[in-house]
Structure formats: C-alpha cells, structure tokens
Amino acid sequence: xxxxxxxxGAVGAYFGGRMLEANHSVSFFVREKRAKQLKEEGLKxxxxxxxxxxxxxxxxxxxxxxxxxxxxxxxxxxxxxEHVIPQLKIIMxxxxxxxxPLLNGFEHIDKLDQAVGKEKVLGGFAYIFATxxxxxxxxxxxxxxxxxxxxxxxxxxxVCNQLNSMNQHVKxxxxxxxxxxxxxxRKYLLITAFSGITSATQLPSGFTINSESTFNVLKNILLxxxxxxxxEGVIFAREEVDKIISLFKQYPNDTTSSMHQDLRKGLxxxxxxxxxxxxxxxxxxxxTIPVIETIYGILKPYENGKPN
Length: 308
Fold this sequence. Notes:
Blueprint: E1 2-6, H1 10-21, E2 25-29, H2 32-41, E3 43-46, E4 52-54, E5 59-60, E6 71-74, H3 81-95, E7 98-101, H4 107-116, E8 123-127, E9 130-132, E10 138-140, E11 146-150, H5 157-165, E12 173-176, H6 180-201, H7 205-209, H8 212-231, H9 238-250, H10 258-265, H11 275-285, H12 290-299
Parallel strand pairs: 1-2, 1-6, 2-5, 3-10, 6-7, 11-12
Antiparallel strand pairs: 3-4, 8-11, 9-10
C-alpha cells in the first residue's frame, strides 16, 4: 500500500517515519520551507520507542506531483484544514485515495465528508506526546504512541485491513477499532480537558494533579464534554469518564499538551478547533458548558500566536 503523509509536523513525521523505518512505501506532502529543512536535516525521530534517521525521503510540494497513493494520512493542525482541503481534493481526484484524518476534535469530519464524500473519509486519531526541535527533528516525550482507525463506510474495509496488517512491522501501534466514532469522542473529551487546563495554567500536568482545585476544573471540563457527546449520540458511562480522569494521574509530572507547547513557543493554537468546537456543539444542543466557555475565553487571544 502506498501511503502519503500530508503534513510533516511532529505527528506526521513521527508516524510516517515509523512506516518508512519498516520499509513501507511512504511519501510526504509538505510546504516548501519544511521540504527544504527535511532535505538538509533529514527526518529524525528521538524516541523511547527507538531513534530513527533517514534522508531517503520522497517529498511533494505540489499536489499535481502526487500520483500513486492509496491512503492519505492527514496530519495537519485544525487551523490549517480549510487551507489544505482544496489540495487534498485534487490529490484524491488524481489518485482515488482514501483519507485518514488525525486531527483532534470532531467538526473536521463533517467538513471532510462534504468536501470529498463520506465514503472516502476514515475515522481515526493519534495518541502521542511529541514536538519538533529547532532542527525539525521529532522529540517523542512519551513511552508509547498509536494511531487508532476504523471504517465509516463499507468501501473502507479493505484499506483499513491493509493498514492493520502493517502494525506488526512498525515501532508504534496501528490499531483497528470497530467502534472508531466513540473512540474519537473519547479522545476529544481527553484532549479538550488536558489541552485546556495545561494551556490556561501554562503549566505541565503535575501542577494540575497536585492541586485539588485545579484538578476539579479538569474534571468539570470532562463532564461538560461528556454531556456534549451524549447529545451527539455517543454515550459514556460514568465509569468510563472516571477512567479518563484516572489517566491524567498516571502522566509524569512534566507531561504537557501540544497546545501548551505551541503556546509557549508563541505559535498558533487549536483553541477554535477544540474548545471552540465544544462551544458550538453546546449551542447546537442548547446546553450550558460554563467551564469550557471560560477556558475558551482565556485562550482565544492566543489563537493566532502570541498577541502583539
């Protein structure tokens, strides 16, 4: 199977790199600046799962260059989605490929369905704590990583099975899930709470866990997100929510979110895609989510990077 990784930030570079390491057919669609950096520095993973470096890369900077592709792994930030959809459509029209989006949240699924058709859009997301250093190398800060994926249409079953067959050969986890919609919402609950609290406090998880008042804010975000999920037809038992809460207590004290990392660097953050999306879902269903609305209001000024 020929895989195109669309975007080579920390997420795209990491998982694409792991597939390359296992000798799978992988190419990257990147911007000119990132292509230049990858050509000069190579693709390098610094990770507890094993380091890897290569300069033997197939890079595309124009959608017209992309030909033989079966699966596109879409690994861009939420705020880039509108910009890349026209490019994505051209590539999919040229190749007939399916797309596996690894964006957080859920609003992007509706946008992609409208743009390229539901039968072409798999469900999925990534679990990884990683960032790029100044050389553009991926620094993996956790002990594990995974992509969870699954079919949303019967036409996607074969490509999902092919991706699943790659799992045993790569130094990460490519996990087929038959209930991918619920798993995507589970991640949405987790990431909205974790990104919100670490970014609003501008502190890693240890400070959240060790402060009862701050940890209560985190739990209230999860409860509000659970209410939204229920209105969208995705039900989590209270025990499932409690299990998510318990996950935070297992994180090392210095663990933080990619949103907090971006905030510290003065980069744009995904507040509109995550907390803003939750606010829109709440408005859609006429429910109140005061804690998330407060976090959203605190972080909104940083949406496009450090305010001048």
